[in-house]
Amino acid sequence: MRPITAVLLFVLAHAAFPQSPQSPSASPMLDTGLPNLYYPTPPPPLANAANASPLLNSYPPAGDPPSSGPCAAGYPPCVLTSQYNNARTDVNGAETVLTVALARAGPTAKAQFLVEADGGGITNLPPGFAQNPVYAQPLYVSNLTVNEAVHNVVYIAALNGEVYAYDGDNLTSPITPLWNRDETNVAGMQGLKHNCDTSYQEQTYYGTSVVGPIQYLDFAGVISTPVIEVNAAAHQTALYVVNECERTSPVDTTVHWYLTSLSITTGATLGSTEILYTSGQVGDNPYGPGMVFFAAQQLQRASLTITAGQVNGAGPTYRTLIAEFGTSTNETGFGTKPSGYQGWMFAYDTTNATSVVSQANTLPYIDQCYYPPDACGGVGQPACTPLCSANTSNPSAQIPNPCGDGGGVWMSNRGGAANTSNQVFSVAGNGGFNYCPTCAHHCAGLPPAGQSAQKFTAFGEAVLQVSLQNVWATTTGQAPFWPTDYFVPYNIPSGVNNPDNLPAYFEVLNNSDWDMGVCGVLLFNDDYLASPDDLVTTSMALTCSKRGDGYVMQQSSLGQFTTGDQGVVAEFSVAASNPNCSGSSGSCDETRTVAYWDPEGSDGFLVAWPWHETLESFQWVLPTGGSQYTFEVASTTSDPFADIGTGGSLTGYAGGVLAVTANPNDTSGEAVVWAAAFPYNTPTNTDPYDPSGVTCSRLDGRYCVGVLFAYSLNPTSTPTPGALTMLWPTPLPTTPDFEPAPYAIPLAVNGKVYAPAYGLYSGAGAYAKSGVQVYAF
Predict the structure, then answer these.
(1) Residue 625 burial (10 A CB sphere; 0-12, 13-18, 19+)
(2) pTM of the full predicted structure?
(3) Would you place residue 234 in the very low, low, confident or very high pLDDT band (cuts 50, 70, 90)?
(4) What residues contact residue 312 under an 8 Å CB cut-off, 6+ apart?
């Protein structure tokens, strides 16, 4: 944030009355006819609730480094969760080695961390597959003693369910893992698909990963980024990972999900629990979801979140792990897979890593449901209101049952964001949005008397705030695990094709497959005009849709559902041109990763690289003549792949996955933006990086050979702060090193960048190896 005095001068010169969110206590009803959750007592504004410390949940409350042991002060910063921290900023703001000058000079060494211990590809992949992609972001623990020696450890989880720990500083041959969980190991130390091992007639049948759960995923084992907890108490130190597997016995071929805690020093299993919500639990728990969790119809794509907080602000501190699900099949089914999925949120108590507790006190939350007994459209149809879908006579082909199907939480594999007020923020994608005050049953269970927030039967296209204050403090089976606040977009942006004349934008998003939350939720603290002469620091949340619509909300009051989106702080376009998003094609300039950097003495900068577009930066500013802060474009780069194809400028490329490093000792005062991106064939152009002539599959990364880029981000550039300048590589390599993973961002720490890959270069133009590409600067 910039100094307040300077901003006030700007405000006095240029500001009209700010467009502050609608008065939260003005009326018990919103102008859309829904109950006002802020009436009669509005939630107090939050300031400095977005904390980007990577240690916040390992060493609460401030997240300060310990004096010794793992992640100790004076050692490289740890990266224990996806996007570097629970605010999901994608920024390592405590880097001590990487600088703009080193990035410009290029790497001094390269290496490959393989996800098969001998490089021989013996990970027992499903038949027909030769690569084992890394879709999870690598994690990092510094100053850790493993095998009686101190290491800075990089943790890698492969799609097939293998997990590895490498010395992050050993880039010379032989490069072998410190420990490995794969098929080269003994029973009990193999990959996580063995959670599905079964015995039948005295014979063991080994579990496998699940082939083709969706058309854009070859197979599924570990999709999401794990989370690490490091604490002085040994029983609170573990790596938590979720995997999917399938049983293979003649009498049991069912699909299952497991949460497993592993020792970060040995890889040994500390504890494991199957993720369940059975028909018996449905019957036993009137306050829980009204339908069964069908493992085969869900995917756990959102990265795991751990947040620590006290129950009701007192008593013991619980460490809550959140695992979110949704989108196993596409909305109309895929192959032999049925359609039908919902957004599920499970809470686990990780106070003791050897005994994770899921439902002893709290029940899972579900944001959509198939079969509430209050039927309005026939057997199995939920009680629908016009809010669910205005186009009820011709439901969207994407959402056959918009009132009960969908609402999956996927967020491009980003994790739910958590603030220091014990709140978690997530976004549900395509699905219905429905409020039913007269229903006797609801998706999330029986609402307590007077609790309006629990009377929603569907929360599709919604940003959700869930408070964990009471989750572990209630009577068994009655935990109030519901959203405490939400935002659903009403305004239809100018230029949007709306052939069905739908009145609200969430319906357009739903019918067009333009999910909300494609960039997850990012939390930040920055300037906000509470009134024309009252500049305050406010804690805000940012998300965006597939189409590139950006929304900024207050964490304390997201905005609910109002005409004109009156409760939103700012609406802006993250995808600047978006030429490919029209009609109901769903082919938008998706922004799957965003990064937020708040340098000293300046308002913050947002960095994004949408599909089909180029890297761009935005600054949080008060526009000339404006009444409230918003993000405005600061810098747009040129196409780095221009003119490398055979048909002229190569316009087909799938954006970039981003991470930012800011070194407080870098005399340039600039940050480095690290971006992995790849081009792909277009009808008029051939991708010269394509090793086989097969078109790159940009949605899963197969055959998509790409490049790691480094750009500088200058907060004091003139005439406009936030200039982006390419540092490296120049020129582009003739033979790139890897096929970038489509979602997982690079891990940049301690002078090195670890880029998760679909495939690694194996020689002779092939990319047959799997793992992480490493660059040392």
Answers:
(1) exposed
(2) 0.92
(3) low
(4) 469, 470, 473
